[in-house]
Write a structure and sequence with these properties.
Blueprint (H helix, E strand, L loop, with lengths): L26 E5 L6 E5 L12 E5 L1 E3 L3 E6 L5 E11 L2 E7 L9 E4 L4 E8 L5 E7 L3 H8 L25 E4 L11 H9 L3 E7 L22 E5 L1 H12 L4 E4 H11 L9 E5 L14 E5 L6 H10 L1 H13 L10 E4 L1
Length: 341
């Protein structure tokens, strides 16, 4: 399976740089995965495609302001640190730029000394383990000094941190937002519940690997990054109930999808569980849990395009993306949405 099979042409001006004022006013492309037929709607119309008894699954992870700007203690050379994964208490796996200036033993000062990091090791892919020292509560200091880790294709400054956060974000831990959920407002979620649709919350802390391009020619040689997930007993019960009673499980985002498909047994049943997943979903994969997917438009040659192609078929997806370009949909994190039904 060649990575070039998942490529498409995207004019740069279609990459959304800013979120819309009203989250639910994004456009919504509805793709029938069996026929390839497409409808053009707005996101608030999602209600028309949800039925009483369906279960909508959302990822309640919260993005942390994980990008820190500091300076080397000895030379004052500028250094950027991106928090990727908490290893234990105050030790984090990080991405450091420029990496060559961050050898073990290097001390980096942030916010006039409010926070000091010491590089203690170099791990896979050149990432650094940093031990942080501070007085007070780490999360409060991070909120004060850190910036939202927007993806590299967004060049505009984000005016309101909360716009890179879903309205239902609960548990700190992500280096990137589960962007399909950015389209929901509290009012729209209330309307979903009023329609008799169950909402199940799962957690997957999104790593920056989600933006990492596939660098191997053969897709099957790609190694997925690992991400931590949790499924509560309550969420498992809601999802199992929907499946058993003949209703659909509709996943909001590729992260919710990867959580469900990682956590389920072979028959598609779920139970309370947590762990790390490196699941890589590409065409040929047999879905065990999800019946439909709400998602954004993803980067060419990315694992996310491969995941949606596994659900809807590569040709249907690429045809839909080509149409989205023609119709000037907005792409990527702050862009428009797609429902694959």
């Amino acid at each position: 399976m060649d990575v070039k099979d998942f490529d498409y042409e995207l004019p740069e001006e279609l990459i959304a740089q800013d979120p819309l004022e009203d989250r639910s006013s994004s456009r919504l492309m509805v793709l029938d995965r069996k026929t390839g037929d497409v409808e053009h709607r707005h996101f608030r119309d999602i209600l028309d495609y949800l039925n009483p008894g369906d279960c909508l699954v959302i990822n309640n992870t919260k993005v942390i302001p994980a990008r820190l700007y500091g300076a080397k203690e000895d030379t004052q050379a500028k250094i950027e640190v991106l928090l990727l994964k908490r290893k234990e208490n105050d030790v984090w796996e990080t991405l450091v730029k420029p990496g060559k200036k961050a050898k073990p033993g290097t001390r980096i000062v942030f916010g006039d000394g409010l926070l000091v990091g010491e590089v203690i090791d170099v791990v896979e892919e050149g990432n650094r383990l940093i031990q942080f020292h501070y007085d007070g509560i780490f999360e409060e200091i991070l909120d004060q000094l850190g910036q939202m880790p927007l993806p590299p294709y967004i060049t505009h400054q984000l005016q309101d941190k909360n716009r890179y956060q879903t309205v239902y974000a609960k548990y700190d831990g992500s280096a990137a937002a589960p962007t399909a959920g950015l389209h929901f407002t509290k009012e729209l979620l209330s309307a979903v519940k009023e329609k008799g649709v169950d909402i199940a919350e799962v957690t997957l802390h999104v790593g920056l690997g989600t933006f990492r391009p596939v660098k191997v020619e053969n897709v099957l040689d790609h190694h997925m990054h690992s991400e931590f997930y949790m499924v509560s007993a309550e969420a498992a019960e809601k999802i199992n109930h929907a499946k058993e009673s003949g209703h659909r499980v509709i996943s909001v985002g590729t992260t919710s999808t990867r959580t469900l498909e990682s956590a389920a047994d072979e028959s598609g049943r779920l139970k309370e569980t947590s762990g790390w997943t490196e699941i890589f979903i590409y065409p040929g994969y047999q879905f065990k849990v999800i019946d439909a997917l709400i998602t954004n438009f993803h980067l060419p040659q990315s694992t996310l395009v491969m995941l949606v192609s596994a659900l809807a078929g590569r040709e249907h997806v690429l045809d839909a993306y080509k149409l989205a370009v023609q119709e000037k949909y907005r792409f990527f994190s702050f862009g428009d949405a797609m429902l694959i039904k």
